[in-house]
Amino acid sequence: MLVSWLLSASMTDGVRSLLSSEGVRWFLGSFSSMLAKPWLVWLLLLAMGAGCVWKSGLLRVHLKEYRQRVAFRFVVALLLFFAAAIVCLTAIPHAVLLSATGHLFPSAFSHALVPLLAFAAVLSSASFGLMSGRYHGMSDVIDSFCFGIAKAAPLFVLYVMFLQFYESLRFVFL
């Protein structure tokens, strides 16, 4: 903020100050809309998915234990079914998730790729956790979401700081 004021005070062409009335109105008026990007949603979904995977014990499967072996087989079948459904929604001609021109990128599929991956992670790990006895109910599943968000909290802070810095540079110099 101070550098933008110094550069604008030195009459540098094309530089706007963040401390001017225009800059303050822009910063406060567009703060929320600057942060409301798909990246924030992706970060939130991936954090929830990672927390669910971690707390379910899916990464530490002991196949010698009967409940975990059965739960792991169910998860593999579930993921194969999920993958087959995605293939059916993208690979056949005139599929629902293809673009109007019939391409995957850009399309509804490419825009939903991160949410689909997060959904697959949550579905498989919650199923594994419930079937293996690691989770005792939906409250444990929700706690795993919160665990993932708590572990990713520094990334949310970095996201806000980086995006505000980037958008401020765009305002000052463009």
Strand-helix topology:
Elements: H1 2-9, H2 21-29, H3 31-35, H4 38-56, H5 66-90, H6 108-111, H7 113-132, H8 138-151, H9 153-173
Number of domains: 2
Distance between the termini: 15 Å
- Average predicted confidence as pLDDT: 94
Order of helices and strands: HHHHHHHHH
Strand count: 0
- Global outline: elongated
Helix content: over 70%
| Proportion of beta-strand residues | under 5%
Structure explained in plain terms:
The protein has 174 residues and is mainly α. The chain folds into two domains: 1-36, no CATH class; 37-173, no CATH class. 72% of the residues lie in helices and 0% in strands. The chain has nine helices and no strands. The protein has helices at residues 2-9, 21-29, 31-35, 38-56, 66-90, 108-111, 113-132, 138-151, 153-173. Helix 5 runs antiparallel to helix 7 (113-132). The two termini are 15 Å apart. The mean pLDDT is 94.
Throw out a few tags for this protein.
elongated, 174 residues, 72% helix, mainly alpha
Summed up, what is this model?
This protein has 174 residues and is mainly α.
